Amino acid sequence: MATLIMSNPSLAFLPSRLRNSRHCFFEPRGARIFDKLVSAVKARAASSSTAFVETKPPTDPILVEKEASTRENILACPICYELLTSIGNPGISLEFATGSNLQCRTCKKSYSGNGTHLDLTVASGAKDYGEPMPASTELFRFPLVSFLYERGWRQSFSVWGGFPGPEKEFELMKDFLKPVLGGNIVDASCGSGLFSRLFAKSGLFSLVVALDYSENMLQQCYEFVKQEENFPKGSLSLVRADISRLPFVSSSVDAVHAGAALHCWPSPSAAVAEISRVLRPGGVFVATTYILDGPYAFIPLLRTLRQNIREISGSCIFVSERELADLCRACGLVGFTCIRNGPFVMISASKPS
């Protein structure tokens, strides 16, 4: 809020016609009356409980504006979705991950950084309680899988799934993200941060949140960032969270990206509904996955088989573009579109404006 500071505080009480006049002429009697009026005003100001700050020239009023933060805090408590306030160190980026302490204004629960990332899961801080996740989620929490993800695992997607590769995928998604460039982006189920780092280095976004449930994946992302010189750490934040309980204020996120992740989510509908909740009106959701249609449709009992796979592993197999379009529509997103390359599909939808 702007604060008005005047060189002569007594003038604040004068009628505007006198206060704003540059040239005023008074008869001697009028001058005496004016002096008495000023004296009375000064006496009133001296006895008032209101504090005034008098500055030296220039004599014209000066507008002093409180400096605004360049990056809006979008982090929320995963329990009650209220904005988290900072305790001590105000930063949420990678630069401040070690000393970050956040607290919910409603339930008063505190969340802290552990040196590499902020833990914003519901069970954060619990010592004796823990929840096992489906196999498709737990798999990526193993240190070996996290280590191998960018050392051969992700590259194999191009062989069996038609994935164009990170650089080409990045170029494709930029067309979908054009309406929100300059805003913030959440890289959901970021893995070891392959795309999170590309987003941050591109300079196209004011804030990049690398979000994953796997502590070891986030650790790998942190290690990769440390190895890069001149990496813009101030624009990247690493957050551990559940995709079905996103720790963001409603309607606060400009874009959400989920690379090769939809099929790993235990409940794609719960996840996309959460994404829809946190997106601002006009915000964009971009995701890649694979579809077993075309020749795969002739696999005997495919739909029954995928149901069994889902019950055992928690992963989901999509069999048509219509299925993905219906998922987005059911979760309140519009303007569904997609790009195909064999089984590979990149989809995009947006929050209604």
Automatic annotation (TrEMBL):
Q: Which GO terms describe its biological process?
A: methylation
Signal peptide segment: none
A Pfam family reported for this protein in Swiss-Prot or TrEMBL: Methyltransf_11
Which cell locations does it reside in?
Plastid, Chloroplast, Plastoglobule
- Could you name the Gene Ontology cellular component terms for this entry? plastoglobule
All residue ranges annotated as the Methyltransferase type domain in the record: 186-286
Q: Return the protein name.
A: Methyltransferase type 11 domain-containing protein
Q: Does the keyword Plastid apply?
A: yes
- Lineage, top-rank taxon, reads Eukaryota
Q: Which GO terms describe its molecular function?
A: S-adenosylmethionine-dependent methyltransferase activity
Q: Which UniProt keywords apply?
A: Chloroplast, Methyltransferase, Plastid, Transferase, Transit peptide
Instruction: Using the UniProt record, give the first listed, main subcellular location.
Output: plastid
What is stated as this protein's family in its record? Belongs to the methyltransferase superfamily.
